[in-house]
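Q: Entry one of two.
A:
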Amino acid sequence: MLTGDKLETATCIAKSSKLIGRDYDIYTFKQIATRETCLQEINMFKRKNDACLIISGDTLQICLSFYEKELMDIAINCPAVVVCRCSPTQKANVVELLKKYGNHRVRVCAIGDGGNDVSMIQSAHVGIGIVGKEGKQASLAADFSINQFQYLSRLLLVHGRNSYKRSASLSQFVMHRGLIISVMQAIFSTIFYFASISLYQGFLLVGYGTIYTMFPVFSLVLDQDVRPEIALLYPELYKELSKGRSLSLKTFFLWVLISTYQAAAIMYGALIIFDDDFIHVVSITFTALILTELFMVALRIHTWHPLMVVGEILSFACYILSLIILKSQFDTEFLRSWDFIWGVTVITLISCLPLCILKFLQIKFKPPIQQKLMQYATLK
C-alpha cells in the first residue's frame, strides 16, 4: 500500500482493510540516515519470519539508494508492505521497481482514487481508477474505472478470470480454424505429387474464415466455466490462472496435434471412403470441415448462451444456403445422394469422436477444479 498518510493512519487503514491480518507480525523501519543503519535495519527485518513491513517514504528513498535489490527482494516476499508519507513520484518509482525485480510473469496492478495516484496508475501494467470525492483524474488515466472499492473483487475474480479464459479459448480456436485447413491443403498437394493446386477456391476459402465459422468461434467470448457467485466464493480459482495452463506451449502443441489429426482424418477419410467419387473431394471435405469446426466449438462450451445456439444454427444455415446458390462449386445431385450423407457423417465422427471420448474420460477420472466446484454447488 502506497499512501501519503502518516504512519499511524496508514497502519490503521492497512489493518481495517485486512491487508495486514490480525495474526501477522509488523516490523516498522526506523528513520535512518547512513548506509550502516540501513544495512542494520534490513538485517533485522530478515530475521523476522512472515512479518509485514511498514516504512516511510524518506526511509525508503535512502534504502533504495544503497540497497535497492536487497530491499525489493525481501519486500516482494512479504505478506504486505505499507509505504507511508509517500509522494506521487515515489509511488510511480515503487511500481517501476516492482516491475523490474518481480518475476517475469508477474503483472503489477495499481489502484488509486486521486490525482496524486495518476503517475502510479500509468506506470503499472494495469491501472484501476476509483471515482471518488477527489475527482475523476485517476479514473480517466486508468485502464479500468470503478465507482467503489468493493467492486474490485468482482472485477478481478469474475470479469478478469472470464476475460483470460475466453481470450485463451478464442485464440486457440482461431489457430485451430486456420491450421486445420492449411494441413488439409498440404495433404491434398502431397496426394497430387506436390502440385500447386488449391483445394478450395474463391468464395469457399473466404467464406470459411467469415460466415461459415465466424459466429460460433467468436461466440466463445460469452462462455463461462463457473458462475460468478462461485468465482467470488472460491478465490483460489483466480490463483489457478497464475500457472498459465489455459494458454501455454503445452496447449499450443496440443491444438496443433488436434488440428493435424482432424485434417488427416478428413482428407484420408474422404480418399478411402470416396475412392471412386474423389472428383467430389471439395464437397465432401468442405462439408466435413464445417461440421467438425461447429462440433468442436460446441464441445468446448461450458455454459450455453442463447447467442451461441443462434451462432451455430446461423453458420450451418449459411452453408446450406451456399450449397444451393453456388452450383458451380458443388454437384447438387451428388449432395442429395445417400452415399454423400453417410460418408460425411462417418468422416466427421472419425475426426471428432476420439476427442469426445477423451474429454469424457478427463471429466470422469480427472476433472478440473472448476468442474468439481460446479458439481458441488449443484448438489448443495
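Q: Entry two of two.
A:
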Amino acid sequence: MNRCEVLIVGAGPTGLVLALWLSKLGVKVRIIDRTASPGTTSRALAVQARTLELYRQLDLTSAVLEQGHRVPAANLWVKGEAAARLPFSAIGADLTPYPFLHIYPQDEHEQLLIERLRGFGVEVERQTELLGFNQDEGGVSAQLRHADGLQAQCEAAYLAGCDGARSTVRKALGIGFPGGTYQQVFYVADVQAQGPALNGELHVDLDEADFLAVFPLAGSGRARLIGTVRDERAEHPDKLRFEDVSQRAIEHLKVQVQQVNWFSTYRVHHRVAEQFSQQRAFLLGDAAHVHSPAGGQGMNTGIGDAINLAWKLTSVLRGQAEDSLLDTFEIERSAFARRLVATTDQVFNFITADGRLAGLLRTRLAPRLFPRVVALKSAREFLFRTVSQIGINYRDMPLSVGSAGHVHGGDRMPWVADDGRDNYSTLTRVRWQVQVYGAVGADLVQWCGTRGIPVEVFNWSEAHEAAGLMRDAVYLLRPDSYVALAWSNAGAEVLEQYFAERGLTGR
C-alpha cells in the first residue's frame, strides 16, 4: 500500500478519471482525498459532447446518458419574454454522436466513477491528507496523514495534483497561480418548481439588473437556478438565504419555486497556474486553472487534462516513450486553459456588467443580434464546437504533424457515420492506430502489423469528403484519439520517422 506508480491527490472528477484511465491501462495507482465522503451536492452539471466521446474508451458513455438529462435547446429571455431559441441537434447532428448538452450532476457523476474504479480494485483513501513530498530522478516520496492521525510514507514514480483551487501540491511546488476574483456574487439553488422554463431545456434571462440561468435536472420540475446577487446583499453572501435574493429575474422567467433543496453563494475566480508540471509532479483540473462557469467548461476541462496525461504517463512507465513525452502535457493543456479563461472572461463580463449601457446591450442589442447570428450555419457551428469542446485541438505542437484535407495533426478526428459504420467505433481502444479512407499501401499495413498498430480502412464516400477528410490519406491517431499525423499517401517511412523523432515506439 505504500508503493505505487502514480499517487493521485484529490478525488473529484479529474482525479477519479485519471485513476480510472491509468487503472484501465494497467498502472498501479493510489488516490487519496482529505474529505470523509464524496460530495452530496450537484456542483458541476454539464457533460459536454467531447467528454462523452472520450468516455467511450472507458465504457462510461452509456451509463452517463442513461442517468442524466439531455438538454435539446437553449432559450434566451428578455424582460419576461422568450427572445430566441437555439436547438443543439440542428447544429451538431453531423458533427458528433452527441449533439446536445447533457446534464449529469457532479455528485452522481463521482459516484459512477468511484464504482467503476472499484471494479479495478482501487478504493479512494478518504480522510487522508498530503502533508508534503520530495522528488528526485528516482521518484516521489510523499508524507501522508490518515484519519487516525498516524503518518506514513508513500513512494511513487509520479504525483498528480487534482486537489482543487487551493491545491496543496501546487503550493508545495511553489508554482504561482496568477489571476483574480470577480466582484460579483452568485447564488446557486436546486429547486422544485413549475412554469414554462421548466420544460427540460436551458433558459437564460438577460436583465438590466439581474442574471438568471435555469438548468434542467432529471425528474419532473427539478432545476438548478444560477443567478447574481447585487446591491448591499452581496457584502455578506454567507448570511444570505434564497428568500433574500432578488425575485426580478425569477419572475421574468415565470419560475414558480415550490421547494428549495439546496442553496449556496459563491464568487467566481479566474486563474491559471504558471506551470502545469515540475519534475515528476503534475497539476490538473482546478489545481491548474479556474474560470467562470460560463459555458459549463470547468469539469470537462479537468477531465480532458486527466485523459491527456494518462496515456503519456503509461507510455513512459512502460518504456514505450522517452520522458520528454510528459513535457507535452503542459504544452497542450496550458495553451487551451489560457484560451478558455480569456473566452469565459469575455462572456462573463458581458452577462454581469453593471451600468445602463451594459443593460441596454444585454436587453436590446443581444436579442436582436443573437437570432441573426445563429441563423448563419458557420456561426452556429462555431458556437457548438466551442461549448461542446469538440473544437479543441493541439495544432502546431510537438506531437502534431502534417495535414490532409481539412484535417491537421493535433485535430480531433472528424466524426462520420456512413453506411452504418461509425468511424469512432474503433476509438474505444486506448492505443495508437491508423485510419485510412480509401486505399492503403501494403508496406504501411505490414509496418503497423509488426508493431501491433491497428489499421482501419473505410470505403471512401461523399460523407468522408464532406467531413473534411482526404481520400487515401493516412491519419495516425494517438491513444487519446486526437490526430497525431495527417499525411496524403503516406508510406511506412513517414510513420517510422514520426515515432523515431519523438522517442516513441507506438506499441
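A: Comment on entry two: The first strand starts at residue 3 and ends at 9. The radius of gyration is 24 Å.
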